[in-house]
Write a structure and sequence with these properties.
This protein has a 9-stranded antiparallel beta sheet with strand order 1-2-3-4-5-6-7-8-9, with no helix packed on it. Strand 2 and strand 3 form a beta hairpin. The chain is mostly beta strands.
């Protein structure tokens, strides 16, 4: 699916494919490209590593808690950890930088 932001004059293309418990998403713009491969481990857990052309890497773990509740943790090595807790109508986010925390 092509996307274009008229305000910033930036565009990219998103290609997605899913089969069984695996999905692949490729996002490409003129400046950067990334690929995410997601694996639905079981009914409650999904792991999604992403790597970009620039070398950025992240891993997302989504845990379904039932009743429209979930916790999603995203680790960006040498950068940050983000935890998002969705509980029905509300969402709480915690973003902790880890760069330079030797």
């Amino acid at each position: 699916n092509p996307r274009y932001d008229v305000g910033s004059e930036d565009g990219d293309v998103v290609l997605s494919y899913s089969k069984d418990d695996i999905s692949i998403e490729i996002t490409a713009s003129k400046d950067n490209q990334s690929i995410t491969i997601s694996q639905q481990v079981d009914e409650e857990n999904k792991i999604s590593p992403t790597i970009s052309r620039s070398g950025d890497f992240s891993v997302e773990w989504e845990r379904d808690l039932g009743d429209d509740n979930s916790v999603t943790t995203t680790l960006k090595p040498n950068d940050s950890v983000n935890v998002e807790w969705s509980d029905g109508a509300w969402t709480a986010n915690v973003d902790v930088p880890i760069d330079g925390t030797d």
